[in-house]
Amino acid sequence: MRPILALLAAVAAAFPAAAAPLLVIAHRGASGERPEHTLAAYERAIDAGADFIEPDLVATKDLVLIARHETELSDTTDIAARAEFADRKRTKSVEGRMVTGWFAEDFTLAEIRTLRAKERLPALRPANVRFDGLYQVPTFEEIAALAKAKSAEKGRAIGLYPELKHPTMLMEQAGIDMVDLMATALRKAGLDKAEDRVFVQIFEVAPLQRLNRLVEVPLVLLISSEGGPYDEKSLRWKDMMTPAGLAEIAKYADGIGPHMGHVLGSDGTATRLVADAHAAGLKVHPWTLRKENSFLPPALHNPGGPAATGKVAELVAQLKRAGVDGVFTDDPALVVPAVRR
Fold first, then answer.
1. Cβ-proximal residues to 325 (8 Å cutoff; 6+ apart), any chain
2. Which distant-in-sequence residues (6+ apart) come within 8 Å of 117 by Cβ?
């Protein structure tokens, strides 16, 4: 267990307190209402009451951290329609998958600035399409500045929850050190201390361990639905979620961000994961609560088809009963009231 975490756990055990409220983490901003990873999506999430905003971070050719869900840009920007960038299209391996498109690491920030964001899921979120073309791709520095400004406006601290995307792959393929860029960016923003309202999350082990040596902010190991971490081929998520595996994670991380199916069974009852993680001193922030029927268990569907809004409040109630510490959501405007009732 990390030293600071161990001390806090000991204090908590000695002086039991009421359970902390479940944190609402705006997944890519209010991405159910605005194109994801735009300043508009983050601001909308804050205005809806989210505790944290979550930018996925990739890097430009000139080593600037920008917010995109993937290094490939065509799903969330208009780059495919830009004739000036047609010759940059290529095919590359992304953690074992062959992907064709345009990749952030092949472009400078100045070039990225000419692009405009678009809705990634237009069939499910047609209302978001009206915002296509309005917003630039933001930098992490701009997102941190927005959180600071909105904290002053709201009179409450707005947290940042960045995820480093593909750090091992980007180091291997492009020589881009995402861990160093993140540590440097946090220091520059004055957000690298344990008391700062920041979590950093990664789906990989070694980059998280290295970041643990560079900054004091809480760290979270993300856990996918199946397989194991890309940088540790011998490890499987299912083994890492055992009591022994969680104890190992607690040596370099403060929490886990598991796929929601690891926390709740198909009938909505809790698995052992939250209790076992808490016993290891780890927070649990599952992902991702989305409002559309398409993303919800059949028992929580409402009439109206895949794009209709399902029974969000019931899923929040299940997560509360499971004892999670926070939840990632595309829809903080729906989740915040359900959490606080």
1. 20, 22, 23, 255, 283, 284, 285
2. 35, 36, 37, 38, 76, 77, 132, 133, 134, 135, 136, 137
- The whole-chain average pLDDT of the chain stands at 94
User: Is 249 in contact with 213 (CB distance < 8 Å)?
Assistant: no
Residue 59 contacts residue 67 (beta carbons within 8 Å): no
Residue ranges of alpha helices (H) inside 15-139 are 39-47, 109-112
Give the helix, strand, coil percentages of the chain, each rounded to 5. 40, 20, 45
* Number of residues assigned to the chain: 341
Which candidate in 27, 166, 262, 285 is catalytic?
Answer: 27
Q: Respond yes or no: is residue 262 known to be catalytic.
A: no
Q: Of the residues 69, 166, 262, 285, which is catalytic? A: 69
Question: Is 27 one of the annotated active-site residues of the chain?
Answer: yes
What's the whole-number mean pLDDT along residues 112-127?
97
Rounded Cα–Cα distance for residues 310 and 251 (Å): 39
Q: Residue 23 corresponds to which tokens in the numbers above?
A: 């944190």
The answer on pLDDT for 14 being more than 90 is no
How is residue 49 written in tokens? 């009451």
Full-model pTM: 0.94
Q: Are 64 and 86 in contact (CB under 8 A)?
A: no
Round to whole Å and give the CA distance between 84 and 88.
9
